[in-house]
Amino acid sequence: MKEKSLQKSSEQVQESLSRKEEVAKKYNIDFEKLEQEQIKLAKEIEIKDKIDFSLAERFGAFDNLFVNNKLLTCVIVCNKDFEIVDRAYSYEKAKFPYVPGFRNYRELEPMIKAFEKLNERPDLIFVPAQGIIHPRLGLASHFSLATGIPTIGVSNSVIECEYKEENGNDITRDNKKIGKILISKEKANPLFISPGNQITIKTAYELSKKMVISPHKNPEPLHLASKYAREVKKELSINKNNLL
């Protein structure tokens, strides 16, 4: 049996704590209060399929990145043939500093603003962040709770978890299954799949795996969102240079 631990090292833990203390003092942020809010909201998460996702026709996905010191949040909606039927973005200064474990408070509001610009409402949204794998409340879960849209969290890293390769790559915490590892591309780093809300682990994994189109690593909606984000980033950068 091959078991892998995804715990943080003592050095990483100390670095994260130091960063949090520094930011708390500088920006007067009560992280203990935010942690309690995350824990309270997490109790509302439903790990069950809201609909029969085999009948879903619209799939959304986000991509968030920084451009010219501002947060660019892009969202797309595609059909079953992965043709984009709607897309939108939000571009504004981040209102919350970067602190591990609190990504929600930095990116959720811009994501909702971009989402509200859409005319097409997706049946499901892929979020490039943690779902229930997060120790308290992942961004994928928080977005779903705020909008009522089922979500799948697809992240490149997790903490405080373990997985066993002989057991279907299940990810566990305290002996409880919380997600699955997806090896979507040979020699590529794994993807950590977990429900955000209103979908099961099994369905989240199967949909993610089904929607990977070689040679892309991510499920196709996420790939399309990333491609759209690069296009918008290029456009914004060109416009900035024209103003100089």
Tally of distinct domains: 1
Distance between the first and last residues' Cα = 59 Å
What is the CATH topology assignment?
archaeoglobus fulgidus dsm 4304 fold
Portion in beta strands:
15-25%
Task: Identify the CATH homologous superfamily.
Answer: archaeoglobus fulgidus dsm 4304 superfamily
- State Rg: 18 Å
Number of helices: 6
Largest sheet: 10 strands, mixed
Number of distinct beta strands? 10
The helix-strand sequence is EHHEEEHEHEEEEEHH
Task: Return residue spans where pLDDT drops below 50 for at least 5 consecutive residues.
Answer: none
Molecular shape: globular
Secondary-structure-derived class: alpha+beta
Major beta sheet, strand line-up: 1-7-8-9-10-6-5-2-3-4
CATH level-two architecture:
2-Layer Sandwich
Q: Mean pLDDT score, rounded?
A: 90
State the CATH class: Alpha Beta
Share of helix among residues?
25-40%
Keywords:
244 residues; alpha+beta; archaeoglobus fulgidus dsm 4304 fold; 6 helices; 10 strands; 35% helix; 25% strand; globular
Structure description:
The chain has helices at 10-27, 31-42, 104-116, 139-147, 201-210, 220-243; strands spanning 3-5, 59-67, 70-78, 84-92, 124-127, 151-155, 162-164, 170-173, 176-182, 191-197. Helix 3 packs across helix 4 (139-147). It has 244 residues and is α+β, with helices and mostly antiparallel strands. It has one domain (12-243): archaeoglobus fulgidus dsm 4304 superfamily (archaeoglobus fulgidus dsm 4304 fold, 2-Layer Sandwich). The termini are far apart. The protein has a ten-stranded mixed sheet, with helices on both faces. It is 35% helix and 25% strand. The chain contains six helices and ten strands; from the N terminus they run βααβββαβαβββββαα.
